[in-house]
Design goal:
Layout: E1 2-13, E2 26-37, H1 50-61, E3 67-71, H2 76-86, E4 108-111, E5 116-119, H3 125-136, E6 142-149, E7 152-157
Parallel strand pairs: 1-3, 3-5
Antiparallel strand pairs: 1-2, 2-6, 4-5, 6-7
The structure holds zinc ion (ZN) (2 copies).
Length: 189
């Protein structure tokens, strides 16, 4: 069975070198749906608590919210950075508090201080799904990701691969010692 959560992402991007309107900088309200698949954890009668899926995903994905997402070879990138530098917001601002954990993968690098994500490929719906899966595949048993942005929708299904022990009292992941970091349950061997 599946537990499903959704996240809202407001972002700006453009398709560099694309022959169409999307080559101009513009913004979207994106809706990301993450489906986690596993057996039902009998103790709590859930696959996984949806709010906990959201918490795990949001920790890293908030880097994409109220952010600018540009491809690494886009000449807008140095231009934007120079304006951010000149106006003193490149390395953060007191109001820039909703920062995610910085990350660097094969596909994308997040710069939370400047609310910027630099991608290897054009950030299409498909590109976003690839990046999200890559960031979360070891943390959750992701079976499907759907991303909706404007009138565009894409989805991809994945084979779940993690063998994750869950707490029978609160449903979240047990750590490597079988201890629940949330409620303190200890699994007996
Ligand atoms: Zn767009
Ligand atoms: Zn617990």
């Amino acid at each position: 069975m599946r537990s499903i959560t959704t996240l809202d992402l407001q972002y700006a991007h453009r398709f560099y070198k694309f022959k169409g309107e999307a080559q101009y900088l513009h913004g979207h309200s994106g809706l990301l749906t993450i489906e986690v698949e596993d057996t039902i954890n009998d103790g709590v009668n859930m696959v996984f608590p949806c709010n906990e899926i959201k918490k795990i995903a949001w920790e890293v994905l908030k880097n994409f919210d109220h952010a600018l997402i540009l491809r690494e070879d886009d000449p807008l990138l140095p231009a934007i950075l120079s304006v951010y530098e000149e106006t003193g917001i490149k390395n953060g601002a007191p109001q820039n508090t909703m920062k995610g954990e910085a990350f660097k993968t094969e596909l994308a690098t997040a710069y939370p201080d400047s609310r910027l994500v630099v991608t290897k490929e054009t950030l299409t719906i498909e590109g976003m799904i690839k990046i999200v899966y890559d960031l979360l595949k070891d943390k959750l048993n992701i079976a499907k990701i759907t991303f909706t942005s404007g009138v565009n929708v894409g989805s991809a299904e994945f084979e779940t691969k993690n063998n994750i022990d869950r707490c029978p009292l609160c449903g979240i992941f047990l750590d490597e010692n079988g201890l629940c970091p949330k409620c303190g349950y200890q699994k007996k061997n």
